[in-house]
Specification:
alpha+beta; 2 domains; 5-stranded antiparallel sheet; 19 strands; binds zinc ion
C-alpha cells in the first residue's frame, strides 16, 4: 500500500517525549473532527489518523491518562506534558475496531492530505473546511475501511469492478463471501484478491468481477463464459490462497458458490437520437427505429 518514498511505519511522540507511538504509514490520511468535544479537549479541531488498534504500538504507557469524554468514548493525554494522544470507543467491540491517533504527534513534514472533515455543523465560524477533499481511489478505500459506517439494517463499505471487455453472456456466476477476524486478516485477504484478479484477467473466458468490503466482510461476484474458464483461472493464485485458508488459522468464516443461469434476459440500450429502448443483445449498432448509431453495448456483467 505504501509507495517507495513512504516508510512502512511512522513514528510519533508527545511534546515531552515520554510517550511514543508507531502506526502504519498507510493510516496517514488525516480526518479532522470539528465537534464541540474536540474543540474543548484539543484546544480546537482534532486532526487524527484512524487505525486498527493492533497496528498501533505505544511506549511510555505509564504516562498515558484516559478520560471518559462521553458515554461512548474515551480520550488519552500525556500525564506529564498534556499532549492529546488518542480517542477510542469505550465498549470492547469498538476498541477492537479502531483507534484515532492525534496527527500532531507525527512529523509535520509527512506528505498528508485531509481526507474528511467531521462535524462541520459544530465548527467555529472562523474555520473554513469542505466535508471531503477529492479522494484518490486508494484514499477512498482506506477511508471506507478505517471508518465502517452502518445502520441497523445496512452496512456500508466499498466495491470495485474489474472487467475484461468480454461481451458474451455469462454462463456461470460465482458468489463468494469471506469474513476476516480482524483488520490485519482483511488486508491479507485483499492482497490475495489483487493477485486473483490478475489471474482472472489473463483468462479469455473471464467476464468481470465485482468485489468489495463492508467492515470485515468481503464479497465477490465473478462472471465467466463457462465453468471450464472459471476453473482454469482459479487454479492459479486462488489455489494458493485456499491452501492457506484450510492449512492455517486464517479467516473467521467463508462461503463460496457457483451458479448457472435459469434465464438470461435481453440487454436493452437506449438510442440517444430517438429515445427508443433497443434490444441490443445481438450487439447490432444501428437503431431499428431511426437508424442512428447506437451507443456501444455494455457487457452483460
Ligand atoms: Zn508528554
Ligand atoms: Zn470530535
Ligand atoms: Zn433511434
Amino acid at each position: 500500500m505504501s509507495t517507495d518514498s513512504t516508510p512502512e511505519m511512522l513514528d510519533g511522540g508527545c511534546h515531552c517525549g515520554r510517550v511514543k507511538v508507531t502506526i502504519p504509514a498507510r493510516s496517514a490520511g488525516v480526518v479532522v473532527c470539528h465537534c464541540a468535544d474536540c474543540q474543548k479537549l484539543h484546544g480546537n479541531s482534532f486532526a487524527l489518523f484512524a487505525a486498527a488498534p493492533t497496528d498501533v504500538r505505544w511506549t511510555g504507557e505509564e504516562h498515558v491518562v484516559w478520560y471518559a469524554s462521553s458515554p461512548a468514548n474515551e480520550r488519552s493525554f500525556c500525564g506529564h506534558c498534556g499532549s492529546r494522544l488518542a480517542k477510542r470507543p469505550t465498549d470492547a467491540a469498538g476498541q477492537a475496531a479502531r483507534i484515532l491517533v492525534s496527527a500532531g504527534l507525527f512529523d509535520p513534514a509527512l506528505p498528508r492530505t485531509v481526507v474528511k472533515n467531521l462535524w462541520l455543523e459544530q465548527k467555529p465560524a472562523w474555520v473554513e473546511a469542505a466535508r471531503t477533499a477529492p479522494l484518490t481511489p486508494e484514499a477512498f478505500v482506506a477511508l471506507a475501511l478505517a471508518e465502517p459506517i452502518g445502520t441497523e439494517t445496512a452496512q456500508y463499505g466499498y466495491a470495485l469492478r474489474a472487467a475484461s471487455g468480454n461481451k458474451k453472456p455469462p454462463g456461470v456466476i460465482a458468489l463468494t463471501w469471506i469474513a476476516a477476524s480482524d483488520p490485519a486478516e482483511r488486508e491479507r485477504i485483499r492482497a490475495h484478491s489483487r493477485q486473483n484478479v490478475q489471474d482472472f484477467q489473463a483468462e479469455p473466458g473471464f467476464i468481470s468481477i465485482i468485489t468489495g468490503f463492508t467492515g470485515l466482510r468481503g464479497f465477490t461476484v465473478t462472471a465467466w463464459e463457462d465453468e471450464a474458464s472459471m476453473r482454469r483461472a482459479l487454479s492459479g493464485h486462488h489455489a494458493v490462497a485456499m491452501a492457506e485458508l484450510f492449512g492455517e488459522r486464517f479467516v473467521a468464516s467463508v462461503w463460496t458458490s457457483v451458479w448457472t443461469p435459469t434465464r438470461v434476459n435481453r440487454l436493452w440500450v437506449r438510442c440517444t437520437a430517438c429515445g427508443a429502448l433497443e434490444d441490443a443483445s445481438d450487439d447490432h449498432r444501428a437503431c431499428n427505429c431511426c437508424e442512428a448509431p447506437l451507443p456501444e453495448r455494455p457487457e452483460f456483467w
